[in-house]
Amino acid sequence: MCRHLAFLGPPQPLGSLIVAPPHGLYRQSWAPRRQRHGTVNADGFGVGWYAEGDPEPARYRRAGPIWADGSFADLARVVRSGALLAAVRDATEAGADGEAAAAPFAAGRWLFSHNGAVTGWPRSLAPLSRGLPPDELLSMEARCDSALVWALVLNRLRRGDDEARALADTVREVAAAAPGSRLNLLLTGGDTIAATAWGDTLWYLAEPGRRTVVASEPYDDDPHWREVPDRTLLAASRTDVLLTPLKEPSA
Predict the structure, then answer these.
(1) Per residue in 152-205, pLDDT tens?
(2) Which of 66, 113, 117, 154 has a Cα at 20 to 30 A from 196?
(3) For the chain, what are the domain ranges?
(4) Topology given in CATH for the domain delimited by 3-245
(5) Across the strands, what pairs with 149?
């Protein structure tokens, strides 16, 4: 598995959300508190953030562990944003994709992360991949299961689905093709957050009108963190958080 986080709120240094919290993503890379699958998230990390006046986010991704990157520590100290998505990647089998396999994935104004694993990969999703336009399939950033799940979500977004529906329908489609998959997905376009809890933990911290944080696990011991039930879709803005149950795919 992996750990990820999305934030909407007043601009603040990236490090105040990722590095500074006592149980932030930085610490979760070697000592997650609630991770159900895997133990060390050291096979890459990334953060995508939005700058004022620019709808397309910037990204910083690396193939190694977050704690070993001194340049990121400097960047996180001074770069500020009011919207971001960050992730640390679980230790996996060796591959050639390097940082291309590290979330967040991006296209246009969107940032995406997948916390989980697709059972039977890659054979299980071959039928779904054949439904993608060839140019979208060939444009995948990496050859891992998360990249293909992102391609499926992105295809729905480009066809006009809103972010929440694109995630929900993709989760049901992948779960039907690959039963037992863990599909905690996280998506933002800079002004809203959509996420799914499907097989691992998901939490949110909301201060209506000020900030919303959605994360694999709480980064501190604030008592206002709330756990999202499994098989649930979350749709959030700076002012509201809506939870909707997700139905299991039909047999």
Answers:
(1) 999 999 999 999 999 999 999 999 999 999 999 999 999 999 999 999 999 999
(2) 66
(3) 3-245
(4) Glutamine Phosphoribosylpyrophosphate, subunit 1, domain 1 (3.60.20)
(5) none
